[in-house]
Amino acid sequence: MLEFDLATVAFLPAALIALVAGLLSFLSPCVLPIVPPYLAYMGGITVGELREGRRLPVLPAIFFVLGLSTIFLLLGIAASAFGRAILQYQGWFITIAGITVMVFGLHFLGIFRIGFLDREIRVDAGDKGGSAFGAYILGLAFAFGWTPCMGPQLSAILSMAASDASLSRGAALLGVYAIGLGVPFLLLAAFFPRLSGLMSFMKRHMAKIERIMGLLLWTIGLMMLTGGFTAMAYWLLEAFPFLATIG
Questions:
Q1: Are 211 and 108 in contact (CB under 8 A)?
Q2: Could you tell me which residues come within 8 angstroms of residue 209 by beta carbon, excluding any fewer than 6 positions away?
Q3: DSSP code of 111?
Q4: Which end of the chain is more exposed for a tag (fewer CB within 10 A), N or C?
Q5: What is the extent of the structural domain holding 210?
Q6: Does 73 or 120 have the greater pLDDT score?
Q7: Are 165 and 77 in contact (CB under 8 A)?
Q8: Is residue 191 very low, low, confident or very high in pLDDT (cuts 50, 70, 90)?
Q9: What confidence tier does 136 reach under pLDDT thresholds 50, 70, 90?
Q10: pLDDT the model gives residue 6
Q11: Residue 115: helix, strand or coil by DSSP?
């Protein structure tokens, strides 16, 4: 069952890319700076109390990540279902999606700027701070409304999920993206006083982070256009034959 093996093994590099994309989404200029007030709001504390480590909002942060993960998993399933529906046109879809993702990459590399990608669209979650349920609702709102901030990265991963057309792998791919985005939230919620210096360092290097994000997006688009994921799957199967037994 070589075709099944290829699809399964090709998921491995795609998952790694999704993980990095989630992390870079967290480090993006319109997410990282708002993390302290978000954590403080979720925990029902002030930013000053958060910095002092008196009360760390670990439980609300867990529910926040569960909220955004819920949306991303549903988006992954929807993207894969869409990929199945347009299976006969999938070649055209992958080409268009690959070119679009590469254009997004050139934006972040600074080759040119796309105006709407420099704006933020937010959804107001209402007065839901200070509770686990409120944090979950805030996570849902964050995943829905924090666009187009995460749009290019998320679009790239959704395009990969749609090109696979497997509901399970599509959901898993967006789950990995959610891990990349959500785990840093949890780490900061648990260790904010110790990690505040690292956050300051990241803020000072936002321009470099954007260029890394652009290079990643451009590479994803190129791999989609050239069949790079399939080629990598062949290489992985040849280099690590035991991977043929996965799945």
A1: yes
A2: 24, 27, 28, 29, 202
A3: S
A4: N
A5: 2-245
A6: 73
A7: no
A8: very high
A9: very high
A10: 54
A11: helix
List Cα–Cα distances, 59 to 86, 117, 132, 141, 175, in angstroms. 41, 32, 7, 18, 20
CA–CA separation, 230 and 73 (whole Å): 24
Q: What is the pLDDT of residue 147?
A: 58
- Both tokens of 190, joined, read 């648990």
Q: State the average pLDDT for the chain.
A: 81
Q: How many structural domains are present in the chain?
A: 1
Q: What is the dihedral of CA 132, 137, 140, 145, to 10 degrees?
A: -130
Copy the structure tokens of residue 188.
């900061």
Query: In 3D, which of 225, 226, 244 has the Cα closest to residue 234?
Result: 244
| Residue tagged 């999920």 (tokens) | 161
| Residue listed under structure tokens 């709001």 | 41
What tokens appear for 14 in the block?
A: 């795609």
CB 180 within 8 A of CB 20: yes
Instruction: Give 3-state DSSP helix, strand, coil % of the chain, rounded to 5.
Output: 80, 0, 15
The one-letter amino acid at 94: I
Is residue 110 helix, strand or coil? coil
Report how far residue 201's alpha carbon sits from residue 26's, in angstroms, rounded to the nearest whole number: 14
DSSP state of 55: S
